[in-house]
Design brief:
The protein is mainly α and 81 residues long. It contains two helices and no strands. The protein starts with a helix and ends with a helix.
Length: 81
């Protein structure tokens, strides 16, 4: 009897793995086509570029951005933690 249930369990695990792989692919596809793709289209439509990759023509020859180097005061250093 124990061998029967062990074989039944092994068979169920194979079937469950196939179901899980299909279900994962289905959920990811639904998530992509219903949420990510329309959101990306809206971002492109309104020109939002959070990484500033610059699809628009730039005047600068590089993507380097100069940072302002200012020495922090003691109060700003104390507020770090």
């Amino acid at each position: 009897m124990k061998k029967f249930f062990r074989g039944l369990w092994q068979g169920w695990k194979k079937i469950a793995l196939k179901i899980a792989r299909f279900q994962t692919a289905l959920f990811l596809a639904i998530f992509y086509f219903l949420i990510l793709a329309p959101l990306g289209g809206l971002f492109r439509l309104f020109g939002w570029d959070p990484l500033d990759t610059g699809r628009k023509k730039r005047k600068a020859p590089t993507n380097w951005k100069q940072l302002d180097q200012t020495d922090p005061d003691m109060e700003a250093l104390r507020r770090q933690s």
